[in-house]
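Thread: Probable membrane transporter protein, structure

OP (GT): Posting the sequence first so everyone is looking at the same thing. Length is 72 residues per the record. Can we get the structure tokens written out before standup tomorrow? I want them in the notebook alongside the other entries.
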Amino acid sequence: MLRSALAPSLSPLTPLAALASHSRQGTVKWRYGAIYATTGVVGALLGSTLGKAVDGQKLLLLFAVLMIIRGE
């Protein structure tokens, strides 16, 4: 039981360790990372605002239409 609980608890450390390693090697493109992070935060804020403003059934229908268009 402890073994199965330990792995997920360490998972947030893995990307940070990888980032530190790549940063020391000079392979991190910080500008692109900042752009990616910024657009992700703005998209999440806009999406959550839109999600609150639109009726749940309509939102579900829009999501279904999007999945059909994308072919998933």
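GT: Both are above now. Quick notes for whoever picks this up: Residues 30-53 form the longest helix (24 residues). The chain has a mean pLDDT of 87.
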